[in-house]
Amino acid sequence: QVKLQESGPGLVKPSETLSLTCTVSGASISSTTYSWGWIRQPPGKGLEWIDTMSHSGSTYYNPSLKSRVTTSIDTSKNQFSVRVTSVTAADTAVYYCARHYNSAFDVWGQGAMVTVSS
Amino acid sequence: SSELTQDPVVSVALGQTVRITCQGDSLRNYYASWYQQKPGQAPILVMFGKNNRPSGIPDRFSGSSSGNTASLTITGAQAEDEADYYCNSRDSSGKHLGNVFGPGTKVTVL
User: Contacts of residue B100 in chain A, CB cutoff 8 Å?
Assistant: First the structure.
């Protein structure tokens, strides 16, 4: 059974950098079959796609976030991570990591709430 | 504004059929995927591709597409189907990994 688990600080100060890691179990993050992505959801609002990274490391970003977001992969730990720089209150959200397969996000993590506040 | 549009709220009587729609230019060329989200929970995939249900999703859920509109139909809605539903497809870049979500439809089962 494939599982994804987000981890990282729950509170980040304005103008600082938000960093989250997704640990994958039950599947290899190096597999050529899958891609991996991040999605977020501000409180009371809808889902917002952040990025998707292929097994080769090619990453596609939401144009509205592209200048502030980077994604990396650590195959030795079976993890991938996202960093969002210069955060504001608008970046407060539940952040989900998910597996991308057959043009869909088929497995999701439980989500990690991140609050941007001083 | 979202590249995909959905009706904000849809209601259905228990046991009746409801269709949730998603409109967008990308849907003329690419299939949508659909996600169900209940309060306090992560979304789950309920439909992808032409009309494919992941394992464990009841067969009362079905998908279809025509022109710029994708639809998720629940035939014989149950109380547990009350949730928010989001469509997802490629964004305007057309890139394989470029994505966009619709704003979501809240389905109420009466």
Answer: 49
